[in-house]
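Might you be able to consider the sequence and fold that I enclose below?
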Amino acid sequence: MPGTIEPFLRELGADVRLLRLYAGDRVPSSVEDLDAIVSMGGTMNVYEDRRYPFLAGETDLLRQAIRTGLPVLGVCLGAQLIARSSGARVKRNRVQEIGWSEVRLTEAARADPVFGGLPPIMQVFQFHGDTFDLPEGATLLAVGSNCRNQAFRIANAYAIQFHCEVTRAILHDWFPLPRAAAAHVKELPRYERRLQRCTRILCRGLVALAQARKTGRAPPGVTAFRERGVVADLPGSWGDRDRSEP
């Protein structure tokens, strides 16, 4: 579920094509006709290719994107797929991270063209059991206390383990039991505006990178850009699979 990412991209003039790979949509064979990719989370693990064959195709597409400098934003599973496509190991984290938690930007993030606009400390939502090693040549952008590697950049690909795109509807979908959902939803109003601001910054950065790649120069702004894009929405129908990792 792209959450607030999709409407924010559309506000920026992006022409978003939503692919539900878990439902049978095909992974594009090439990045040639794409200006950017957003790869979202899912209940599956990156190493479950046999059960979810589209993961191999998604990994190949992201590998192409990174090699050619196509802008990419990967969230949760999408971040782990970026790591995997870059040759890094994806493994079980020492603990499952579920719920609201704090992440901190690294010193390198302050000089980053996208992450430099984010606050140094962010309260975000976590829902994962795996983590990733930092790929060779990547820059670590954010860290956490229960899972160190929270975000990195490699080429024009940004990988974030956490969720800032969550909405009330998403939390209710992830936690179908009313009591479980209520425990997380009640905290959302405290962080919602800041989460939306962070998501807007990431979306503006993605579109700006796409425009810069096309023109060969840094753009003066992003609100007037018209981009073609793909949001690869990986979570399946929650009714027919494990909900452990959205």
User: Anything to note?
Assistant: The first strand starts at residue 14 and ends at 19. The domain at 5-235 is CATH 3.40.50.880 (Rossmann fold). Residues 219-228, 234-245 have pLDDT under 50 and may be disordered.
